[in-house]
Amino acid sequence: MAGDFRGPPPAGGRPPQGEPPRGGRPARPGSPGWTRQPRDPLPGHGGRPLPPPSPPQQLAGTPPGRGGRGPLRRPPPGRAAAPPPRTRVAPVPPRGSALPRPAGAGAGAAGAGVHPASQAPRDGRVTRGPSMPDWRRVRRAGRGRWKAVLILLLVAFVGFGVYLDQNMTRVQALPADSSASSSGTNYLIVGSDSRDGLSAEDEERLATGDAAGQRTDTIMLLHTGSSGSVLVSIPRDSYLPIPGRGSNKVNAAFAFGGPELLVQTVEGATGLRIDHYVEVGFGGFVGAVDAVGGVDMCVPRAIDDPKAGLDIQAGCQELDGTTALGYVRTRATPGSDFDRVQRQREFLSALLGKATSPLTLVNPFRMVPLASAVTGTISVDDSDHIWNLAGLAWGMRGVSGGEGVQTTVPIGGSAGGSNLRWDRSRAQALFGALQNDQAPPESSFGP
C-alpha cells in the first residue's frame, strides 16, 4: 500500500468526494461514497455559487413531462398506439469493396462500382438539376423551322414558275437569219386586236367589234442596258419598207406575215436586233389590269368615245380592265394617234410598275391571277421563257420609276393620206445611240 501513495492526504485523511481514490477508478455517480460536488463559482460572482436551474414551466392543460408540446393524443378505443417509427440504417460496405450497381443500369452506364457522386466535377463547378428551357435551344429550333418554311416556299415558287413557263403560248417570231446586231437587250412589245378567247358578250362589253384577223394597235420597243431603259413607241401608221411587200404601214406587216415579218420590218428600219418578242391581246390586257386591282392614272381631259366604249372624266382615278382598254385604244383626242401612243406608254409603265411592286408579289391572291392571266393570253417567241418576261417587267419598272426615257419615233411629215414619214436624221441618232447601248440625245426624241 505504501507504493500506491501519491502525495500527502488532504486535511481530514479522506480524498475529496467525486475524485478517484488513490490507486483505483473514480467513484461512479450513485455508488456508495459518492456525493454531488458543489459547483465552482463563476468569475465575477464574488465566489458565490450559481443558483440551481429552475424547473421547466408547464402550460395549462399540459400533462407533466411533455415539455410544453401540448396534450397527448390518445388512440381511439380498441386501437393500440402505433409503435414509434424505426430508423433503417443501410449497411456500410467494407473499405475498398465495390458498391452494388442500381437495378436497370446497363453496360453503357458509368464505370461499374463507381458511386455517382465521384463523377461530379472536381473544379468547383456546381451542377444543377432540371430547370427552365434553354432559350438558345429554343432560338435554334425556331431558326430551323423558318428555314424549312423558306425552303418550301422557294420550292413552291420555282414549281409555279415552271408551270407558267410550260403553259405560255409560243410563236415563231424572231427570224433565224437576222443580220442586225446591237448591244444591250431589245424587246418588241405588240398589242394586237386579237379577240381569241372572247365571247360575244365580252366583245360587246369591251366594244371590240367582231372583225376577223389580227392587226396591231400598239408597237413599242424597249431597250435595256448599261445606259438605262428606253421605251420607244412606233406609230402604227409609220410608212416603212416591208421585206417582200414594198412600202406600207408598219401594222400591215403583221397582217401580211405575222410576228416574224413584223420583226424583220422593225429590225430593217431601226438597225437594232430584236432579242425578245411579246404579244398581248385584248383579253390578256383586261385580265392583267383586273388581277392587280386596277391601275391609278391621272387623265388630263375628259374623253367620250363610243367606238372604244370609253366615257371617262378628267382627274386622277383608278381604271379597271374595261375602262383601261378603251383608254389605250381611243383616238378621240386632238393629238389622235400621237396622244394614243403616249397614253399606251404611260399606262403600260404604270401597269407593270404595280405588277412588280412588293404588295403584289407577296400577295398570292393577286400574283396567281395575274400570272395566270398573263401567261394564258400572251404570246412569246419559241426561245423565250418566263424569266425573260421578268426581265421585261424589271426594265419597264425602271421606266415607270422616272429613271428611264419614254419617247416616240421622230416624225418628219406625212407620206400621203394617214401615212407617217420618219425624220431620218433624228431617227438615226436615236437608234444609233441604242445600238451602241448609249443614252440617246434629247434632240432625237419625237414626235
Would you write up a description of this structure?
By secondary structure, the protein is of the alpha+beta class. It has a domain at 169-444: Aminopeptidase (3-Layer(aba) Sandwich). It is built from ten helices and 15 strands. The strands form five sheets. A seven-stranded mixed sheet has the order 1-12-7-2-3-4-13, sandwiched between helices. A two-stranded antiparallel sheet has the order 5-6. The chain has a two-stranded antiparallel ribbon with strand order 8-11. Strand 9 (303-305) and strand 10 (310-312) form a beta hairpin. Helix 4 (282-291) crosses helix 5 (321-329) and helix 5 (321-329) packs antiparallel against helix 6. It is elongated. Mean pLDDT is 75; it is low at 1-5 and 107-111.
Portion in beta strands: 15-25%
How many E strands? 15
The helix-strand sequence is HEEHEEEEHEHEEEEHHHHEHEEEH
| Terminal CA distance | 153 Å
Overall mean pLDDT stands at: 75
- Count of helical regions: 10
* Level-1 CATH class name of the domain at 169-444: Alpha Beta
**What fold name stands as the CATH topology of the domain at 169-444?**
Aminopeptidase
Strand order of the largest sheet: 1-12-7-2-3-4-13
**Major β-sheet, in short?**
7 strands, mixed
> What's the architecture of the domain at 169-444 in CATH terms?
3-Layer(aba) Sandwich
User: Which runs of at least 5 residues are low in confidence (pLDDT < 50)?
Assistant: 1-5, 107-111
